[in-house]
Design goal:
Enoyl-CoA hydratase, Enoyl-CoA_hydra/iso, 45% helix, ClpP/crotonase-like_dom_sf, 6-stranded mixed beta sheet, alpha/beta, catalytic activity, 2-enoyl-CoA Hydratase, Chain A, domain 1, 4-stranded mixed beta sheet, globular
Length: 278
């Protein structure tokens, strides 16, 4: 029933070309779909579009639960735009960008907004979800995956970088520091069932979006005050400084003197995804 109501709700809202953020809402649940064809990566512009789409929903009294999902078959958010990362690090090396700017980027703003949300935000992962895409999912209230999510993880180390969009802190919060360290040092990429066993996702079901709609409907039926209180009182401010330090440390990779941006540009030119690297 809820899925039917969503499909007949307000029409999709498109933002940017070719990047698309679609918002579908009906009654008290909103579905936000992200797409950036053909590869499904996300840039800071994409993160800004998600902030612009989700922030009004968090403020709207009539919206009581939000679902974030992918708008392309087989992709949630594949990973961050590696070309943009390479360009940014190159500019840091040239002195035209301050590493501190990474802590105030749209990507950082998106993660902080989701962390602080006082409404449930469910990541419905029906496809590839790595790197920056998984960091966004980690900032959500919960994560539901389907078998179509054949690659979930933080494989940045394979490109000689590290998760700089909140991954070091939010993964540690989720599974513990030791397991998170090993996961990132290995650059692990998992199937949905492996991610469930590792505690990275909360459920694996045939269709993540269908299950997310069911859960969103349940949350929407609860007391708004009680739900908000639970989310507010279980939030933590302890990670803020560490998240900022993580982002700045990521930016400082551009100061190492290594040929890092060049390697990242080569990867971007190769037209492949992180799931193909070992």
């Amino acid at each position: 029933m809820l899925a039917h109501r969503i499909s007949n709700g307000k029409g999709p809202r498109m933002t940017g070309k070719p990047l698309r953020v679609q918002v579908e809402s009906a009654e008290d649940v909103a579905v936000v779909r992200f797409a950036n064809p053909p590869h499904g990566t996300i840039s800071n512009g994409g993160a800004a579009d998600l902030v612009a789409a989700i922030r009004p929903l968090l403020a709207a009294a009539e919206t009581r639960a939000i679902i974030l999902t992918g708008g392309q078959d087989g992709i949630f958010i594949r990973h961050a735009d590696v070309r943009q990362i390479a360009t940014s690090l190159e500019r840091v090396g040239m002195g035209s960008v301050d590493p501190q700017a990474f802590a105030t980027s749209a990507f950082a703003e998106l993660g902080a907004m989701l962390d602080a949300a006082e409404k449930p935000v469910i990541a419905a992962i029906d496809g590839l979800c790595m790197g920056g895409g998984f960091e966004i999912a980690l900032a959500c209230t919960m994560r539901i995956a389907s078998p179509a999510a054949t690659a979930i993880g933080l494989p940045e180390i394979r490109l000689d970088i590290f998760p700089g969009g909140g991954g070091t802190q939010r993964l540690s919060r989720l599974v513990g520091r030791h397991r998170a360290r090993l996961f990132m040092l290995r650059g692990d990429v998992m199937t949905a069932s492996q991610a469930l066993a590792a505690g990275l996702v909360d459920e694996v079901v045939p269709c993540a979006l269908d299950r997310a709609l069911e859960l969103a409907g349940m949350f929407a039926g609860r007391s708004t005050a009680a739900v908000s209180a639970i989310l507010r009182l279980t939030a933590t401010d302890e990670d803020r400084e560490r998240l900022a330090a993580e982002a700045c440390r990521f930016g400082e990779l551009g100061l190492t003197g290594e040929a890092l941006p060049e390697a990242l540009f080569q990867f971007a030119e190769g037209d492949v995804g992180l799931e193909t690297m070992r």
